[in-house]
């Protein structure tokens, strides 16, 4: 039983890795691109406006992704954050809100791309390869929807915290964002106590079902 479970988890990890890692990279590139379009050249100068995974790889984020993929449940991970300098923005607070929302929107875009690819694959003759690609696309939709909602949590330094900080009075926003030093600990507590799954689970399922409409009648949601 243990051997069978281990093999299944390894297969799941293999099928989920490509669309998930692609989504994580697109998430960071979207942050950098949104900042660049508002006048901040930092990400461009550092070579971060690229889909080359080497430029974005974060050892800890990758390890967390591997562990959550192999153990099941809510799969997530992260790449190296793209540096952003809001001093280049005409309106720094509004600019940071734009940068923050760009990441989750990129994940939704990847989820839509995976859904459309799934639909295209279902039009091909059934084979072992087409079934593996279709399954990978399903994981791509589910994981990228999860990444989008997860990053919208209002826990510094996640994207949702930048959106909330932009709405708070400046002094209160500074105190709120100072919680970023405890952010990873807070996120891990919320994750392993099941709070993340309980709060974001219904949102993820709803978005997966909505995007799944683009994938056609064979999409398993």
Rg, rounded, reads: 18 Å
Class derived from helix and strand content: mainly alpha
Succession of helices and strands: HHHHHHHHH
Distance between the termini: 27 Å
Number of DSSP-assigned strands: 0
Q: Strand content of the residues, in percent? A: under 5%
Query: How confident overall, as mean pLDDT?
Result: 89
Mind summarizing the main beta sheet? none
Helix content percent band: 55-70%
Query: What is the helix tally?
Result: 9
Low-confidence parts, pLDDT < 50 over ≥5 residues?
none
Shape: globular
Verbal overview:
- The protein contains nine helices and no strands.
- By secondary structure, it is mainly α.
- The protein is globular.
- The mean pLDDT is 89.
In short:
By secondary structure, the protein is mainly alpha-helical. The chain has 9 helices and no strands.
Quickly list its features.
single chain; 221 residues; mainly alpha; 9 helices; 69% helix
Q: Which helices and strands, and how do they pair?
A:
Elements: H1 2-37, H2 42-45, H3 59-71, H4 92-122, H5 128-151, H6 159-167, H7 170-177, H8 183-192, H9 195-212
Helix pairs in contact: 1-3, 1-4, 1-5, 4-5, 4-6, 5-9, 6-7
């Amino acid at each position: 039983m243990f051997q069978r479970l281990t093999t299944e988890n390894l297969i799941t990890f293999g099928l989920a890795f490509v669309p998930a890692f692609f989504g994580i990279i697109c998430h960071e590139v979207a942050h950098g691109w949104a900042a660049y379009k508002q006048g901040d050249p930092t990400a461009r100068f550092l070579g971060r406006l690229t889909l080359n995974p080497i430029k974005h790889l974060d050892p800890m984020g990758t390890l967390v992704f591997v562990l959550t993929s192999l153990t099941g449940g809510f799969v997530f991970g992260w790449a190296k954050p793209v540096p952003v300098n809001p001093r280049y923005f005409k309106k720094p607070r509004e600019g940071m809100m734009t940068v923050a929302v760009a990441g989750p929107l990129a994940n939704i875009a990847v989820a839509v791309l995976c859904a459309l690819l799934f639909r295209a694959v279902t039009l091909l003759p059934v084979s072992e390869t087409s079934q593996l690609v279709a399954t990978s696309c399903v994981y791509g939709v589910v994981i990228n929807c999860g990444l989008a909602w997860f990053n919208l949590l209002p826990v510094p330094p996640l994207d949702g915290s930048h959106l909330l900080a932009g709405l708070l009075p400046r002094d209160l926003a500074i105190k709120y964002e100072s919680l970023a030093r405890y952010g990873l600990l807070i996120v891990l507590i919320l994750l392993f106590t099941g709070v993340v799954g309980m709060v974001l689970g219904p949102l993820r399922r709803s978005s997966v079902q909505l995007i799944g409409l683009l994938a056609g009648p064979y999409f398993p949601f």
